[in-house]
Known about the structure:
By secondary structure, the chain is of the alpha+beta class. It has 23 helices and 23 strands. Among the domains are: 82-159, Penicillin-binding protein 2a (Domain 2); 265-313 and 331-616, DD-peptidase/beta-lactamase superfamily (Beta-lactamase, 3-Layer(aba) Sandwich), CATH 3.40.710.10. Helix content is 36%, strand content 20%. Strands 2, 3, 4, 5, 10, 18 and 19 form a 7-stranded mixed beta sheet that branches. A 5-stranded antiparallel beta sheet has the order 12-11-23-22-21, sandwiched between helices. A hairpin with a 6-residue loop joins strand 22 and strand 23 (587-593). Helix 12 runs antiparallel to helix 23, helix 16 crosses helix 22 and helix 17 crosses helix 20.
Amino acid sequence: MIRGPALDSGSLANRTLYRLAAAVVLLMFCALGARLWYLQVLRGDHYYRRSTDNFIKEIPLPSARGLILDRKRRALADNRPRYQVYLTPGLVTAPALDRLAHFLHLGEAEAETLRAKVAAKKDRDRLHPMTLFEEIGHNEMALLEAHKAELPGITVDVEAHRFYPFGKVAAHVVGYMNQINAEEFPRLRDQGYRLSESIGRAGIERQWESYLHGKEGFERLFVDAKGALSAEVDRDELESFSQVYGGPRRVDPVAGDNVLLTIDLDLQRLVERAIGRHRSAAAAVVEVNTGRILALASHPAFDPNILTGRLTRTEDERLQKDPFRPLTDKALRENYYPGSTFKIVPALAALDDGLVSPEEKMICHGTYRLPGHTFGCMKSHGAMNLHRAMVESCNIYFYHLGERTGLDRMASLAADLGFGAPTGVALPGEAPGFIPTQEYYRRAGGFRSGYTLNTAIGQGSTKVTVLQLALAYAALANGGDLYVPLLVERIETPQGGVVQSFAPRLRHRIGTHPENLARVRSALCGVVNELKGTVYDFRDIALPVEVCGKSGTAQVTRTRKGEASGWDVRNDHAWFASFAPAKNPEIAVVVLVEHGGLGGHIAAPTSMEIYRGYFQGRR
């Protein structure tokens, strides 16, 4: 057999090395290709923009926030100029920083902090303007503008800043703003917000933020290596800007929409002045036939200008520790025992179900005994029918009505009047209140008949808000229509065009017989205008109309019951829920005075002051 020549071992080794070298070179080219693909395709736009940033400077153009207006178009939240200092780290010089510190009267420690802040930005985002001071005074602005030639890389810009012309007036309704924090910025960035922007935190400012905010614009400018506007840019470059940069040269900002409220500034001031005579109080005024909120007040209030501006630690601690809770909206976000103002519920339930006739009399001896507990009344009233029991606020009579109707029937009628659920007002954080049922008490440890008696007089676990009570009494006054409260009348563009309007909206018709509503209304008029009525001595005889309503003294502890000596945390809450005029009612007014004492003595006179201002102001 003829064999071929044997392979030389050296040649075989060389061939293996060649193959290995070729594989290494191939892998290197693959890695280089992958890196080029990553840099040019995946990250190409990013690095292209970084390179163009060396000669193109983007200037943000802030949008003007929409206004919040009262029903007569007076601004409750407005904008005013605010002068801000911007700095471009890659363009500023050390002498410029020294001059800036001198002009703004910065101390040595503040100046050193400023230098460190700028130095940290020198290596990255060097040509991206950073906010240095959010607000400087007009005189400081004029000084910097006069010496701007000595301040390369430093600019002063004017921006609209939120301003509340009337300070604390309607503060809880209007709300306030503060700056976006780092945790929420990733979510808000996609909605067009900058980290340095402020956002609505309470009230209308928060609830209607999407309309009020507007949309920021920008302008991109050609600059030279020193950050000055380039004089060498020709028309062709400007016309081809979008092709070169990949976007428009300028996008104009879009101002936010205005929010027009149903609130009447004059009435709001009057209401706040009236409840301001107490340490802690709240009030609501609504139109009976539409549900429009004319005034909604909580006292004490905060100044939204302070919360929207630079809130100091001292001021923040003062607000947080204030025992009268100025940050809490007591008309909407807090709920209370309604006391005797709730007696309309067992009265209507018993009348509707035929469990009592209007003239049936029950005897009040001043106490009502159940096994293991005695329930009391303010005094021994003697024989009482429904009208007299409401006028003189006889607890014993309503204990009997509560027993006849039962807890669940009262809960059902209370729900029909809007209690135990949010009203649907256009504000955040509304408290729903609470109406107990037998099932609730069984889950909580067991039902007792005494719980029914407590509910009949607005105590126990029953809780309502000031606004809920106002809407319920408005429904009584108008014959049974329970409205969704209307606070925002319409949304408008800055030019006055209507974006969206809101008409009065009926929540539902109360399922109570009209004759029974009329009987309860008559009794409420007697509370104020009949000799033995609990508010008779505190009515305003100078008023041109008759007021009808129910006082309430809601017990909060077992001590100092019913005392009328002003603020004390052991004292009862004072209520007066009402409407006027008696014939063809126009408005419903509810006043709550926290720990004020007797409702008829404390809350009723405050309500009369509100009615006096409303009706006499229309003459």
